[in-house]
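Open question from group meeting: does this chain pack into something compact, or does most of it stay loose? Before anyone orders reagents, we agreed to write out a predicted structure and look at it together. Recording both the input and the output here so the notebook holds the full record.
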Amino acid sequence: MYNDSFFRHTHAMQTVLKDAGLIRSGIRSQTNNLKGGYWNRVMHYQQPGKNWVVKQFVLGDENLMFPNLPDHEAQALRDLDGSTIAPGFVGYIPDAEGGPVLVYQFQDGSDWRDDTASMGRLLRSLHDAPVTGTYRDLNIEPSDILAQSNEIMASVDSGDATWLKLETLRPQAVPHPGLEQRHMIHTDCGPGNVIVTEQGPVLIDWQCPGMGDPVEDLACFTSPGIQTLYGCPALTEVQITDLLDAYDDAIVIDRFHALRRFYHFRLAGYFLARTRSLQDSDADSSRRYDQALELELTLLEDLLP
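Structure tokens returned:
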């Protein structure tokens, strides 16, 4: 996917790691590119005693939905280091040539497919985890989520037929039921960012964490559009029930049912904006986002009061 010297010449990557004091010269190593990530470059680096992912961030135009925040990802891995929630932190080189470089422990496992109960337990563990870092505050008020949706969709012609259909599904803002404290939120916890290890699922790609309402992660993972973007079918009602039962927090689950439509509306707006922005430059990706959009629109119709 990427045509960059950081990946075409492993010497450049090894120099970055050596200059940071993470490796020594003269030790045999093995590297290969990793698939995944929509935005950044990732490489699997192996050396005796070292089994790492080396990630270089590609900084460019801001993504209003899933911003690329290397400092925050590094801090999240530091905060969660030693848990089974995220990969172990190894090192961070913010001023590396070509973009910040993050190094973390490689997770040996398989792609997530259908065990929603294990995901419910993982997300509960994340949202209960104490953190010390400073992160962005996420929108939690329905009115603010809708306002962000407007920003995301600003690039779409208001005469667009799908834009008009989505507007008919816009929920009316209600007061947030209340949140005693904000929690660490992954924000992009689709199945493509989950590795199932022998110890259970692990969340990867922490490029846009924040402090907010756990409902955001639950809505993201149960989004049919997000599921299909990663090659998975939409979750069934039984699977969603299993996820919520395993999450096992009645207060959060009540908020999920009350507020999820606002998060799904914002996701639908994001899919629409991506579909239209990519239709000339990347027709295949545009079609995939369009499929995700259709599924999200159907869900929004089902959630109408």
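Observations to bring back to the group:
The chain has two domains: 5-106, 111-302.
Confidence is low (pLDDT under 50) at residues 1-7.
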